[in-house]
Backbone:
């Protein structure tokens, strides 16, 4: 049965023509098809390799830029904190300076007011002394009925002033 099949029979002429056709086809394929296809595959492989290298480079660059960005952000935060701390120090310094200036101004005004009060008290006491002296002279002239000379006036005024107690009025100014 096997011998009856035509596909299994060895026919030398058909075999030679099959090998020749295979050789020509292989030569044509190798010469005109395999070379360009292999070059295309090699070119594509090279483009893929370059693209991967570029992607690796881009990834490295992105990592570097990200790290640089993080450093800049951290530096910016640090700078902002320093500026804020400096602003707080300046504000506190200004607050203290204003407080000291206000306290100095308050003390100056109190001292000025105290001096004005002392001056007014002294003027009032001097006015009272003058008035007492005038009243004493008038009273003496009316009681004695005579006009006093300058020495008598002076002696009477000094005696009258010595007898008056101004210490209570002068004590209030201290």
Residues:
């Amino acid at each position: 049965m096997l011998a009856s099949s035509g596909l299994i029979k060895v026919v030398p002429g058909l075999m030679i023509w099959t090998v020749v056709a295979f050789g020509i086809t292989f030569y044509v394929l190798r010469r005109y098809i395999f070379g360009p296809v292999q070059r295309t595959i090699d070119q594509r492989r090279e483009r893929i390799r370059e693209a991967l290298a570029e992607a690796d480079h881009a990834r490295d660059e992105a990592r570097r830029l990200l790290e640089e960005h993080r450093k800049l952000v951290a530096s910016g935060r640090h700078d902002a904190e320093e500026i804020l701390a400096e602003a707080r120090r300046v504000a506190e310094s200004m607050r203290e300076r204003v407080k000291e200036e206000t306290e100095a101004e308050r003390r100056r005004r109190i001292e000025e007011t105290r001096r004005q009060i002392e001056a007014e008290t002294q003027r009032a006491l001097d006015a009272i002394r003058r008035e007492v002296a005038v009243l004493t002279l008038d009273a003496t002239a009316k009681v004695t009925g005579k006009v006093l000379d300058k020495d008598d006036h002076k002696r009477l005024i000094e005696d009258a002033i010595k007898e008056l107690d101004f210490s209570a009025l002068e004590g209030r100014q201290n």
